[in-house]
Amino acid sequence: MSWRRSILQVASLALALFMSRGGTALALTSAEICEWAAQKAARESGVPADILGALTLTETGRRLDGVVRPWAWSANAEGEGTWFDDPVSAIAFAEDRVARGRTNIDIGCFQLNYRWHGQNFASIEQMFDPLENARYAASFVHQLYRESGDWRKAAGMFHSRTSVYAQRYLARFDALRAVLKSRGFQGMIDTPETYNSFAAINSSQRKRVRERVMLLGAPLGSQVTGRPGSLAVLASGRSPIERAGVPMIAIEMATPRGSAGGPSLWRRSQPP
């Protein structure tokens, strides 16, 4: 049995189990998955929600109906970025690159680089899981915060330890973070798309936009960086995955801390 077929079977089973329990939940679109994952990882790790939210927007922000939203099925291979239609296409692309020894590839909601972080995960499928991707990113940011003593500086180091690249990245991060804090995810209207250059394409095509970019987590002074997140959590119904635009798994939306007063970063919206 292929892993693609296995993923679909496990996802269908998880959805059936969820529905049989009569739980109150919301199915997420691809545009909302990273937002949900960032929220949950922030609550679990103690990393500020606006830090993780701005990071996923900076890494994979895609304009949909005028609103910039993070996109889970994103891959950036050596500066060539693509927003894929679905997880199966994204995983197949990344696996093909790695199989050919081209391991410098950023993956998922937080663009974790396989070269530097891949050894911490069981598979590329696991890298693309939005929740595991976000949890790993949160852990990494927390580690950088302990090292630097400042959340904003940690966000810059998440991109690169080389100051000039970190500062360039933070210019975009700061702009997105400011809007996110004042308006929430649904207010990301007049904001730029991702720092990286991505081409929104049909999954059957392989045209990508090339741009020289610094990748995640590079050692100090290096010219490139690189490492990842888990579809294995599908078995427990914790991971929201969709196929061909149809949600495959419904999940419970966590209630944000401090929801009283001020806009919520995570409020529910209609699919874009």
From TrEMBL:
<dbReference type="InterPro" id="IPR023346">
    <property type="entry name" value="Lysozyme-like_dom_sf"/>
</dbReference>
<protein>
    <recommendedName>
        <fullName>Transglycosylase SLT domain-containing protein</fullName>
    </recommendedName>
</protein>
<feature type="signal peptide">
    <location>
        <begin position="1"/>
        <end position="27"/>
    </location>
</feature>
<keyword id="KW-0732">Signal</keyword>
